[in-house]
Amino acid sequence: MKKTALICLLSIVCTLSSTAFASETKLETSAPEPLYSDNVRVDSSQFYRAAKTVSLVVQPFGLNYNSYSAGFTGSLFVSSKFQLSLSVLNLTDLFQFGSEDEETGEYVRVSDDKEGEAYELSAKVFLGNSFYISPFLFKRSLVVREFDGSWLFGGSGDVIRQGGISDSGIGLKIGNQWQWSKFTLGCNWFSISEAVFSSKQTGDLAFEFSTTQIGLTEFYLGMSF
Question: Residue 66 — left, alpha, or beta (φ > 0 → left; ψ -120 to 50 → alpha)?
Answer without folding.
Answer: left
